[in-house]
Amino acid sequence: MKQITMLLAAAFFCMLGSCDNPQYSLVGDWEIAPDSELAQEDITLFFRKENDTYYPTTLSYSLSASGLLSIEKGRDRAVCCFGGIDKHFVDLRQQTQLSKEKQFIIRRMLARLRPRTLSSDFPFALSQGCGFIDDSRPWNVVSFSQGKVGGLFIFQPQCEGVSAGKTKHLLRSVVAEFPPVEGSMSFLERH
Q1: In what order do the strands lie in the sheet with 68-78?
Q2: Domain ranges across the chain
Q3: What digits encode the pLDDT tens for the residues 58-107?
Q4: CATH topology of domain 21-188
Q5: Can you give the pTM of this predicted structure?
């Protein structure tokens, strides 16, 4: 009887969203792509953080299919009143080769944000329950590419959809897996 009660309690918590299967997408109702497919993709995680200047800060992590991780931290010079970028300044650029184990940990985590299929149209995905919000606020973007096909995940800080909290937690976990960069976690503040 005690076991049945525990199973019912576990099922109840899963229904409330406390249960999470890392083999399933956070952007749709499907299993993540297999490791053999993920290993062939280049993945870039890009953050942009607005501040009170015309120089929003940027941080990107690019993981190539070979396992080379490129990190770049910089600033964009925003064009007054139009929201465009006129120039990009690089403050930090470094590269490191990740172990196969570390690559697959990161690839599997980010695969949960990947569109179901990659194509030449570069489809984009959003957290479940979120619609596209076009208000020029900073977004976090994960791009997946393999040759001439690709796809994007766009995380909008103001989104409060069903999987937004899990997505935010996942992004923080991925950044924690990367080599430390001063101020990297600040890009996820207010998210």
Answers
A1: 85-97, 68-78, 57-63, 42-49, 140-146, 149-155, 124-125
A2: 21-188
A3: 888 999 999 999 999 887 766 665 556 666 667 788 999 999 999 999 99
A4: Mago nashi protein (3.30.1560)
A5: 0.79
